[in-house]
Every structure is written in structure tokens, then in C-alpha cells.
Amino acid sequence: MTSGQAVEQKPVRILVCCGSGQGSSMMCSKKIKSYLDKQGIPSTTSNCAITDHKSRVDSFDIIVTSVALAEQVIELPEGKFKLGVKNMIMPKTFADDLVSIIKNNFHK
Predict the structure, then answer these.
(1) pTM of the model
(2) What is d(CA 71, CA 99) in angstroms, rounded to the nearest whole number?
(3) Does 94 map to a domain?
């Protein structure tokens, strides 16, 4: 690679979980995707019920859930990260933390 070429970054995979997997996690997933797109951070987002995250551990890099549900997240393998948030409906309240996880671990 020459010094003028851009490095293509692999999209970070984010799984957003709530109690049912249909309400706040769906809304939060869309808002996270929109925010990261505006920041120029390649990502994919999906959502599910917190009880379903165990079967999807191979399909995400970061799991985002409410602080109240974060304790239900299984011990994650190395290279996977959990972000427990206070307000899933307003990603701007945790955007800095999410971007920090991405930049420090995936897009260095």
C-alpha cells in the first residue's frame, strides 16, 4: 500500500438488545446506524431481545443494552464489548462512549 491510499475499514457489528427486541432496541439500532454513518464510521446494526443475545454472540462486535439489562449479558469472548446505557432512545447520550470503544478497538 502506498502512503496515499485509504485503508478500508471493516464495518463494526453492533447488536442492540432490549426486553422484547422490538421496541427500544429497534429504534436505538436505527439511530446508532444513522449517527455512525454521519461520523463516517462503517457499521452494521441489528436488534434482538436480551434473552436472544447468547445465540448471536458470533454476529456482533459490540452489544448495546440498557444498564438495567446489562447484567444479563453473558461473559463475552475476547474482542467483544458491552455498553450499558441509561437512555436507549437517545444515542447522543452515549455516542462518545460507543465511538471510543470503536476507535480504541476496531478502527485504530
Answers:
(1) 0.89
(2) 22
(3) yes
